[in-house]
User: Fold this.
Amino acid sequence: MNMGVTFAMMLLCAGAIAGEFTGPWDLAALRQPPKAEWGETKDGVRSLYYPGEPLGGKPTRVFAYYAAPEKRQGRAPAMVLVHGGGGHAFPHWAAMWAKRGYAALAMDLSGCGPDGKRLPDGGPDQGHEDKFHTIGRGLRETWPYHMVAAVIRGTSLLAAQPEADPDRIGITGISWGGYLVCIVAGLDGRLKLAVPVYACGFLHENSCWLPELARQTDAERKLWIDHFEPSRYLGQARMPMLWVTGTNDFAYPLDSYQKSYRAAKGARTLSVTVRMPHGHEAGWAPAAIGLFADQVLRGGTPLPEVGPTRVKGNGVEVTYASATRIVSAGLHYTADTVTWDQRKWESRPAEVAESRVRATVPPARPITFFLTLTDSRGTTVSTEHRELK
Assistant:
């Protein structure tokens, strides 16, 4: 076998495809299991530190929590847990997944330790300054660079644990954690599923972060978009993805959200909730997240699958396939044209019959609507939203 073929096979085994955009990260180095400093175990959750990327020419460390199921047969599936803004490494998040039967790693993305205080050798803080305005010092001095690296290296650490199955690893992240998931999903093919909650790409087109991007110089903004905008990477994501969000999310509007899930190349499932609260506990609460992980990583009963929406006059209809009983369906609509976070949504029941859901959309135009289906497990999936001009 010649060296070119050997190198191509190595890339494929590492989850990379030749010619794909890898941004400023050394993926080959990040995919090597890091040496961890293990700490105490409390309530089944163990604390640890692992190396981060250099900041200002000095080494850094990342703090994390690790948990594994008490009882298992062979290696367990695993989940990488990525917190959002204002969050930290949550031990109870890791414990929640361990109780479900998964090995789990929840790392800190603010340069802090277990007490929430800054580490002397921690990475960048998670404020807007570090996210957007240190880019003039270089790509590798920014929060997105460091935290994408921390997530990929954390995945390598998780994959190396004796309790974890390296071939069955998924990832979920909340808000800014979901932003990181959208980037990592396009960089790390070892991941078998991804669940970004609230977050998406196309932030430079519409999001609450437009004022921060406007503060950048033209050159800084181009650098940030070219390297740290999730839409640069989502087209390389090929794993199944579950997209969880609310209609009125203040940070990540539904138009950018739709462009994002359409950009990803793998199978997608949507779970949109009218006025879903934005927060960590609200973000990890939906039953669909755990059931989706079970579906992909454990051969569990799949979430209902919804076909495209058909519109005829004011009538709308979708077909669906479900291994579980659909107990209810809903039509959700808004005639508002103000910013997405300020729109008033109305809901009404939809008819469920013979693997179809039907509803009548009010005659107001323009109008935006979507349908939801809820099964006997309390899991809700959605159609894409449609705008009727």
The domain at 24-298 is CATH 3.40.50.1820 (Rossmann fold). The chain has a mean pLDDT of 95. The CA atoms of residues 211 and 382 lie 31 Å apart.
